């Protein structure tokens, strides 16, 4: 997600503000502090929408 966020020239703080979450939540996602089998938090879907990509693409993007 970090790579995609940086493509839009956004800081973690800016993205958090755009979607209405705490910066800590953005950091957790970027540090992959959730298990893939867990249902991702709703705000990840908001992030994908803000970054104009699918949720799946957002998660897979950083693994490449």
Automatic annotation (TrEMBL):
Q: Which Pfam families match?
A: HTH_3 (PF01381)
Residue ranges annotated for the HTH cro/C1-type domain, each copy included:
1-58
Listed GO molecular functions?
Answer: DNA binding
- Locate the transmembrane regions by residue number: none
What name appears for this protein in its UniProt entry? HTH cro/C1-type domain-containing protein
Query: Matching InterPro entries, A to Z?
Result: Cro/C1-type_HTH, Lambda_DNA-bd_dom_sf
Q: Where does this protein come from, organism-wise?
A: marine sediment metagenome
